[in-house]
Amino acid sequence: MTAFALDDPLERGPGLPRPGRLLRTAADSIPPSGLVLLGIFSVQLGAGFAKELFTALPPSAVVFLRIAMGAVVMAVVARPRLRGLSRRDWAVALGFGVTLAVMNLTFYEALARLPLGIAVAIEFLGPLGVAVAASRRRLDLLWVALAGAGVLLLAPWGQSETVSWIGIGFAMVAGACWAAYILLSAAVGGRFPGATGLSFAMIVSAVLVAPVGITTGGVDLLQPELLLIGLGVGLLSSVIPYSLELQALRRMPKQVFGILMSMEPAAAALIGVLVLSELLHAQQWAAIICIVAASLGSTRMRRG
């Protein structure tokens, strides 16, 4: 995931309170590994609350709520500057925004058809593929085989009430978009200062998702309680975890960060049990463990 700072924009201006500095001081009192774990659980808790909204809104409408709320917050925290951008800058930023839109739409469609832990585990194949593709070690073939075994264990070969091929397909598309997101975020980070590139991409994503989200959600999107939950989902899924990750990356090696992030599918499965009462079978837990182990192995063996 791409991290961004919340403290710099909040600290500017003479005579004004500086909540960003207070937040940074509070974050510094927490070990960096704790910040990463808090960020992971924040993301999955946001996904759990988003899935609860599916009883009131279709997934595409929930995606619009999440992205729109996140874009508003990001525009305030890190207002994008569009002057002086080259055509290449525009192309990279727009591509990043399109990737964000498709990634979120397909993931939420997968979430509507799969338990949270399974959806995240399959989606996690995207960043795992990026990590393996960047390496030339033969040992990485083992991690590919292990991840493949996990997918085979998740596949609904027989009658399954919790897993569908359509859901798996959506999760795989989301994983491919996550891989593209990782590559594009590096390009955007090199062309835009701070979090302005991500802020611009989220605005583009919100504009792209708006037609389908508004069409499917209709007037229900204006209900105050749904707007409030949507804001909470946006904060939990984007603003809070990205901020925590940035603070952690300042104080820990990237390899250690990657190892901790490999625990995300397991955290998603745990949130699914605690928040959504999604009890998984032993075979499904084994599949998630395979994918987590593959991610851990590829990250652990990767040189600096």
From TrEMBL:
Q: Which UniProt keywords apply?
A: Membrane, Transmembrane, Transmembrane helix
- Residue span, EamA domain: 166-297
Q: Which InterPro entries did the record assign?
A: EamA_dom, EmrE-like
Gene Ontology MF term list: threonine efflux transmembrane transporter activity
Q: Which GO terms describe its cellular component?
A: plasma membrane
Listed Pfam families: EamA
Per the UniProt record, which residue ranges are transmembrane? Answer: 56-78, 90-108, 114-134, 141-158, 164-184, 196-214, 226-244, 256-276, 282-299
Q: Which SUPFAM superfamilies match?
A: Multidrug resistance efflux transporter EmrE
Q: Which family does it belong to?
A: Belongs to the EamA transporter family.
* The protein's name in its UniProt record: Threonine transporter RhtB
Top-level taxonomy:
Bacteria, Bacillati, Actinomycetota, Actinomycetes, Streptosporangiales
